[in-house]
Amino acid sequence: MRANPHVLEINAHAWFKRIKKEFGPQVKTLADVPQSVLLKIKELGFDAVWLMGVWQESMASRQIAREDAGINQAIKQVVTDYSKEDIIGSQYSIYGYEVNEVFGGESALLTFKENLNNLDINLFLDFAANHLAKDHPQTLLHPEYFVRSQSDPQDKNLFFQTKNGEWLAHGRDPHFPPWSDTVQINHFNPAARQFLLSELLKVAKMCDGLRCDMVMLMMKKVFRETWGKYITESSPEEEFWPLAINKVRSEHPGFIFGAEVYWGLEWEVQEMGFDYTYDKILYDRLLLSNAQDIAGHLNAEHLYQKRSIRFISNHDEESPITAFGPEKSKAAAVVVSTITGSRLYTLSQIFGEKRRLPIQYVPNSCDIDPAVLAFYKKLFAITNHPCFHGGQWALKTPRPASDNDDTYKNFLAWSWTQQNTCKAVVINYSGARSRCFVPISKSPAGDTLTVREEFSQTTTTAPTAETKSKGFYLELAPYEAKILSLDF
Questions:
Q1: Are 306 and 442 in a shared domain?
Q2: How far is it, in rounded angstroms, from Cα 146 to Cα 171?
Q3: For residue 478, how many other CB atoms are within 10 A of its CB?
Q4: 352 by DSSP, 3-state: which?
Q5: What is the pLDDT of residues 356-374, one digit of tens each?
Q6: Which residue, 378, 396, 366, is CA-closest to 295?
Q7: Residues 316, 207: one domain?
Q8: How far apart are alpha carbons 453 and 483 in whole angstroms?
Q9: How far is the C-alpha of 238 from the C-alpha of 340, rounded, in Å?
Q10: What residues make up the domain containing 362?
């Protein structure tokens, strides 16, 4: 997989339903997905597909989702006519780490993986180690694997009672209400940890990497703070993830681990062995802050940056067009596509869908905005250049275009250099027309510098003496981005 890989998140149920509708009876399982479909993913330049939601569905979660007022209201805001049959259980309330028969089971998934691998595309799946579905068989077989109350608990929103009369806790993020369709694993219980490890090793045989859900909730200090009053076991000597990652890699060298993690714990999680961690800080700054705050975040330690997952869309976030606005979302997409780290995209983002639907809803079709799709195709064609993957990245500091003009502060700028090629990325990340000079790393020996702009495919020239002393002059419209190619 390339450095700074491009990863495509696909909602497995929704995507496969559309594939079956398009190609008809010839597609019965994932093994039957036509080569033409996979080639389109390859042609866009994706290094990996994250197939989200392939595991066995919880019937309890399905029932909860179909009755949930919030889920139904969110669907009604986008879809006027739908059936409750189109709502499934949450993909993160997992009944079992067996491949859902909707997709043809494990053998079909392995064939699908092989077909992707033959195109040099990796397959990533999910692992939600913090919790399982509330009706998971282990809740009856081994209730000691879970956080439980020894008596009738006061907080009935936090606990539920099994058929065996045990009061078990729902999974939760301590900053939010519990997830009512889940059960919380007791990560201080040695047998529960061993069970998790066996499940992880089983899953690792089916894919090239994992996106691990809410990783920080399993960290000893977080788990103790969240659940300490309900557990009797002492804290394990070692964290779960370093042991688990080492074990998986001893059997599957090169296996890739990505972590959903927040709360400033990203570096700690990287130190545990994760290849990549969510960069929610960048998302929030792109959404809410200015260019200088964003540039400040991009000044972080280089190794941390290389191991960050950059995104403006995933299944938990609102559609970029709605969250950012049409033009700002394009500028933000250029940012995450041209800095170091793993670059994550969703199908709905590329198609230009304007609202995020709940992951439990499986629609029959999707809307595609041709203009948005054309933008992403162009962006991918540009950023698939080897320079953006094997080159040297450097953050640049824009300079004022003239005295008393502080609009240069609205710019983000950086460069990629590889041998005699330089790509300079310049973005006016503001709602005002702005001007600046952008420093150029190298200048040719001749009298003029020739610059090709990649989006427009236009060529301009500038005096070499001026670019050496001031930089390359640019005046950009609000949220306009330019990617400049300079050959020396």
A1: no
A2: 10
A3: 15
A4: coil
A5: 999 999 998 888 999 999 9
A6: 396
A7: yes
A8: 6
A9: 31
A10: 6-389
Torsion, CA 430, CA 436, CA 437, CA 441, rounded to 10: -10
Q: How many domains does the chain have?
A: 2
d(CA 36, CA 55): 25
d(CA 324, CA 314) in angstroms, rounded, equals 14
Structure tokens at 448: 């003029």
> What is the C-alpha to C-alpha distance for residues 159 and 169, in angstroms, rounded to an integer?
4
The 10s digit of each residue's pLDDT in 332-363 is 999 999 999 999 999 999 999 998 999 999 99
Residues contacting residue 236 through CB under 8 Å, at least 6 positions apart: 187, 188, 190, 193, 220
Instruction: From 354, 389, 424, give the residue that closes a domain.
Output: 389
Rounded to whole angstroms, how far apart are CA atoms 188 and 223?
A: 9
Instruction: Produce one character per residue of 341-360: b if its CB has 16 or more CB atoms within 10 Å, e if not.
Output: bbbbbbbbbbbbbeebbbbb
Residue 169, CA distances (Å) to 128, 134, 181 in order: 16, 9, 11
Residues 6+ apart with CB under 8 A from 486: 421, 422, 423, 424, 440, 442, 449, 450, 451, 452
Rg of the chain (C-alpha set): 24
> What's the whole-model pTM score?
0.95
Retrieve residue 409's tokens: 């502060």
